[in-house]
Amino acid sequence: MDQYFATMKKTAAAVLCACSLLGAGAAHAERLKDLASIQGVRQNQLIGYGLVVGLDGSGDQTTQTPFTVQSVVSMLQNLGVNLPPNSTLQLKNVAAVVVTASLPPFAQPGQMLDVTVSSMGNAKSLRGGTLLMTPLKGADGQIYGIAQGNVLVGGVGASANGSKAQVNHLSVGRISNGATVERAVPTSLGNGDSVFLELNDSDFSTASRVVDAINRSFGPETAAAQDGRVIRVRAPLENDSRVAFLGRLESLNVTPAQGNAKVILNARTGSVVMNQAVTLEDCAVSHGNLSVVINTEPVISQPAPFSAGQTVVAGSSQIDIKKEPGQVLLLKGGTSLADVVKALNAIGATPQDLLAILQAMKAAGSLRAELEII
Question: Are residue 291 and residue 163 in the same domain, yes or no?
Answer without folding.
Answer: no
